Amino acid sequence: MNDYGDPIWRTIFLNKKWGEYPAEEMVRFIMYAKNYINKKEVACLDIGCGIGACIWCIAKEIGKVTAMEGTKSALDKVKRLCRKMNIDLENIDICHGDITFPKDYLNHSFDILVDNYSLYANLASHIRQAYIQYYHLLKEEGLFITNCFGKNTTGFNTGQKIEDNTFINLEKGTLKNKGKTTFWDRKELNEMFEKTGYRIVNIENIIENRNNVIIEKHINLFNKII
């Protein structure tokens, strides 16, 4: 079975010992979405789910969730982690595919879309067209959170530039040795989302300084303009 996306992630996920719990910003979103979507049955999609840190939390707090991931070595760990967290596996659907072309693999819409720092690991041009496809997979009353990295992040503009905003072989920072990385600034993100047809509900900019290594996080929450 072929992997999708940057091949470096196969090795990363095979050796990965971290990532069993969702980040604080994702926990806050999951609890917000739980109260926002006032329905008995809620369809959720985790885009680039990795080994399942958000999957089990969504399944526990909201309900049925589709785990979409391009790297088979990550998907192999999703059900294992869900069992560890005492999650009913009947609530987990597995989808192995290219997260930048979701409509090639998914044929129904979702109430909640989650991209927890996954789409960023692709070419900027592929990310742009992916947001268009996810727009059509999001229900009118649904929510979409997508998190990515800003240009203040250590390592931006180092290594090899392969497209506007996209680099490989970063020379420093926490994203070094993580393959393709696309960085955005707030103006670019807002223009891209609004052009696609999303309505911005909430945005956050988080700057983390870890021993003088900077990580700039863009947290983006939106729904559709109706």
Description:
It is a single chain. With 226 residues, this protein is of the alpha/beta class. It has a single domain, classed as Vaccinia Virus protein VP39 (Rossmann fold, 3-Layer(aba) Sandwich). It is 30% helix and 31% strand. The protein has helices spanning 8-15, 24-36, 53-61, 72-84, 124-137, 186-196; strands at residues 44-47, 65-69, 92-96, 110-116, 138-150, 160-163, 166-168, 181-184, 198-210, 213-224. Strands 1, 2, 3, 4, 5, 6, 7, 8, 9 and 10 form a 10-stranded mixed β-sheet that branches. Strand 1 (44-47), helix 3 (53-61) and strand 2 (65-69) form a beta-alpha-beta unit. Helix 2 (24-36) runs parallel beside helix 3 (53-61). It is globular, with a radius of gyration of 17 Å. The model has no long low-confidence stretch (mean pLDDT 94).
